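Data card: per-record layout.
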Amino acid sequence: MRFLHFLLVSLALQASALQCPKALKALCGQYVKLRAVLRRLFGWRNSAASMRLEASVVNTTVTSRPMTDGVEMWTLEDTTGSGVTVRICTLGAVVQSVMAPDREGTLGDVVLGFDDVESYRAPGAYFGAIVGRVANRIEGAAFTLDGVTHRLAANNGPNTLHGGNVGFDKRVWAAACLPGAGVELRRSSPDGEEGFPGAVDVVVRYELHGCKLQITLEAHLEKGGGKATPVNLAGHSYFNLAGHPKKGGVPEEALMPVVDDHRVYLNALAFTPVGEDLIPTGELQTTKPGDLMDLASDPKGALLAPKLRAMEAQAAEDASAAAKKAAAAGVAKAAEAAAAAAKNMKRASAVAAATGAAVDAAAAAAQDSEAAAEVSADGSVSVAEKKAAELVYQAREAAAEASQAAVEKEAADAAAEAAKKAASQAADESAAEAAAGPVGFDHNFVLASSGAGSSEGGGEVLAAVVTHEASGRTLEVRTSAPGVQFYTGNFLGAPEITGKGGARYGRHSGLCLETQHFPSSVSEASPVTEAFAKVGGATPILRPGGAPYRHTVSYTFGMLGTQSLHEGGASS
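The structure for this 572-residue chain is written out next.
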């Protein structure tokens, strides 16, 4: 029986070498079936010799099942006892599920996503997907390469995000089994897809080795492609080491716990600041212990809760200041109107007073004059009486004007007071809205000792360590990329998303560690591109006859209390 087992695995490995996808899939399926039969009939599970043979040849079982519209779900199950199982969906090359044990040995799904395929087709949060052709943002939805400007889809305000409207995350990939290891996904991105030049062949390999998920991302120009093109691929899994909510071991339709209680260590002493539209400024800003952006000084990692609360407070303060500044102009206009009304009322009152005094004087003069009492033969009124009557009329007009000015002054004062109250309320509302809005980390960090500077990628270095005290789970990330986008799910929950098992995803329900080259560093002669190129962070450009693109990242799931994952701090 052991001979049959060895023979089947050998055939699968030969098929892999000959690149026969259909044969590989068939052999993988046959291997799993034979393995199950042998275990039932001959007690392989209890056979030490069989277990040694299996461990020496196959440590991961790989199976697949069809979904809808040509989409497949592949399952990678570790057989060495780690308990880790990973599911890969061929739509978007998505990491659909990662089951990992907590300190009690209870398995939990530690990545966000959906149970059904259709939810992955809708525009959204890119749960678990491979994003490209160029991950992250491209400013102005355009770039210039070799003197030619290429226009892209603006799917994130005025910018392009994660490859455009129909990026790699919305494409179905062709899958082939990697016997005893994982699955290989391929797709061809044609010239002009989403506005990008050049035809590119892309390969993503997912391999599970014990509790480590190894991801290899490769790309090269198709033969005869002839056009240079940028490539920057990234995995977009959202991790939450608390796992999905359960009640009595059954998935519960409850709010997903936030990642506030996670600790995060990044092997990075600098990050790339961004503007309001999250486009990098081109600077590399170093961090110091105690800084809000410092995630490297504490070997145990920084607890996210105080960091996120501080960011919310800062966002509220900034929004309040902005609202007050914007409202100040309205308040100033209202105050100006009130001052003008007061001036007008003062003038009108002065005229009324002067006119009244003139009337009094004229009346006194008319009373003392005999002419005021005489009437001519034809009945005409005396000159003094006429003058008095005219002054009375003027007095009435002045009084009316003064009264109207007083009304206007009162209204202007009320308007000014209302403007002040409205400005204060607007500032408070803006602060509350900002604090509850998309606040958190969404920054590219510059990794120390990275394999920057080559489109082929260098050796893997430590990128991040995430720990969760409550469950005991840990996550270590290593990569050949020069940067990692640390994102705390700031835009989740607007609106709320229903994910796996009915769990409701809100803001900060997951965190992403997207290893990558630096954002918006594509366009030639761009100050941002030039600045990032100096440190090996600019987006790689594939050229005919040039080096291919290669980027690796590994996610290792562990447990607190094991050997330190990053002895030596940020320089390891």
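Known properties of this structure: The first strand starts at residue 60 and ends at 66. The radius of gyration is 37 Å.

See the next section for split statistics.
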